[in-house]
Amino acid sequence: MSPRADSVGTVARRDDEQADSLFDTQAEEAEQANAPLAVRMRPRGLDEVVGQAHLLGPGTPLRQLVERDVAMSLVLWGPPGTGKTTLAYVVSQATERRFVEISAVSDGVKQVRAAIDQAKRELGMSGRQTVLFVDEVHRFNKAQQDALLPAVENRWVSFIGATTENPFFSVISPLLSRSLLLTLEPLGDDQLREVIRRALTDDRGLAGVTSLTEPAEDHLVRLAGGDARRALTYLEAASYVAGREPIDVDVLEKAVDRAAVRYDREGDQHYDVISAFIKSIRGSDVDAALHYLARMIEAGEDPRFIARRLIVHASEDVGMADPSALQTAIAAAHAVEFVGLPEARINLAQAVIHLSMAPKSNAVIRAINEASADVRRGLVGPVPAHLRDAHYKGASKIEHGKGYQYAHDFPGGVVEQRYAPDAVAGRDYYHPTKHGMESRFSDVVERLRAVLRGGRQG
Questions:
Q1: Do residues 347 and 336 make contact, with C-beta atoms less than 8 angstroms apart?
Q2: For the residues of 207-267, what is the DSSP string, one character each?
Q3: Other CB atoms within 10 A of residue 300 CB
Q4: What gap in Å lies between CA 88 and CA 109, rounded to an integer?
Q5: Contact at 8 Å (CB) between 321 and 435?
């Protein structure tokens, strides 16, 4: 082949490569233009990420890993819409690594091994590293997670796994021990507003075609519940309805089929609704209680606040009439932390139904209030000598513990003995009701007091 022909061939190949590159760029731009708003607005660098300052601030481990471009494996744990996928993508962009995404919902070991093999080839041929992002990694079983270990161990890929479940229960120990665990938090209201306003004006987003009224923005923030993806999805739907007109509450309601609940988490509605909620449970009106629960959830109330009130109510208004009510309330609070909304609303509803239907007693709160009142009045007195600590050297010389009777040495595990200080001896604080299981404790308390006080009723 002549030098002339070789030169022509080289130019032709270069032209083909440029054409292919231009075609790929155009295809990528077309795909981006048709992508959902939440995808188009995905941050391009760490500084564009909204929220998660505890992970991205100066000097934090993640920022140092990215800025130094060192090999890394991460497990990102947080509720939906907190930016797990975004953070993985930004890490790949900042470190100029290939970004490969696998979903544990639809993919399996075959796809994992194929992605790892391609990453090894890329690393060997060009030296370019790969970020292998596994979404919903907790959905992989042990064998599927085991398939990731060689690639993580040999650093063929930079593994980033995302999970909404507690990784200590859902991710195998070998994988977790080789990864940096980062916990993401739900976005606050101000951070959601920043995400929404950026999407309204940015050329990648709605580019100023429409606007959002202040009441509509408030409603959108409440609907989002700390989930940035949900906020942008709802905003995009509303923009289709509004066209070039401003998006108001009516437009937003039509777009997402969710009525705007009048509810200010810092104002009167907050206190009025929670008051009505607790009083409905106390009054055993399960239907009204569920209404107020739904009203708070739909308005974007913090589910942890609701769970805390249920825990208090379980002891304050149910108490020993149904001791299992407290267990149910605490279990619902754990569910809120582990599962999050919207699913955790079911657990909260179960707790509300249990507490509403349970027999009621305020004997627990009356007992501690009466005891506290006596203490505040100065009725304390010294601890009886026979109850004082007698385990240290010299205690016997001052007769600490002398005369103490070990209850387990007596029939029924109870013996006549004074436990209270002189100032409150014989005072009764706990007055069991005849409601539910507490009716059993009423008889028990009477028998115990009779033995403890030598047949005397205080």
A1: yes
A2: TTSS-B-HHHHHHHHHHHTT-HHHHHHHHHHHHHHHTTS-B-HHHHHHHHT-------TTS
A3: 21
A4: 21
A5: yes
Output the tens digit of pLDDT for each of the chain's 458 residues.
Answer: 555 555 555 445 555 545 454 444 444 454 556 788 988 988 888 888 888 888 888 888 888 888 887 778 899 998 887 889 888 888 888 888 999 999 988 888 899 999 999 999 988 898 889 999 999 999 999 999 999 999 999 889 999 999 988 898 889 999 999 999 999 888 888 999 999 999 999 999 999 998 999 888 988 887 787 788 888 988 998 888 888 889 988 888 888 765 544 555 554 566 778 888 999 999 888 899 999 898 888 777 788 889 999 999 999 999 999 999 999 999 999 998 888 778 889 999 999 999 999 999 998 999 999 888 888 888 877 877 766 766 666 656 666 767 777 788 788 888 777 778 878 888 888 888 888 878 888 778 888 888 888 754 43
Q: What is the distance between the alpha carbons of residues 29 and 22, in angstroms, rounded to a whole number?
A: 10
If DSSP codes are grouped into helix, strand and coil, which group holds residue 70?
coil
For each of the domains in the chain, give its residue range(s) and CATH number, in order of start. 52-183 (3.40.50.300), 189-256 (1.10.8.60), 268-357 (1.20.272.10), 381-452 (1.10.3710)
Q: Are 420 and 427 in contact (CB under 8 A)?
A: yes
Beta pairing, strands 74-77 & 98-103: unpaired
Q: What is the DSSP letter of 321?
A: G
Cα–Cα distances in Å, from 129 out to 98, 159, 325, 434?
6, 11, 54, 71
Would you state the structure tokens that stand for residue 164, as one six-digit string?
């909404």
- Whose structure tokens read 């006549």? 416
With 0-12 / 13-18 / 19 or more C-beta atoms within 10 angstroms meaning exposed / middle / buried, residue 139 is middle
Angle at 14 between CA 12 and CA 18, to 5 degrees: 115
pTM, full prediction: 0.54
User: Would you call 430 helix, strand, or coil by DSSP?
Assistant: coil
Which amino acid makes up residue 138?
Answer: H
Measure the CA–CA gap between 335 and 313, rounded to whole angstroms: 18
Interacting residues of 103 by C-beta distance below 8 A, sequence separation 6+: 134, 135, 136
Q: Tell me the one-letter amino acid at 137.
A: V
HSE of 294, CA atoms in CB hemisphere, 13 A: 9
Q: How many CB atoms lie within 10 A of CB 2?
A: 7
Angle of CA points 33, 34, 37, to nearest 5°: 80
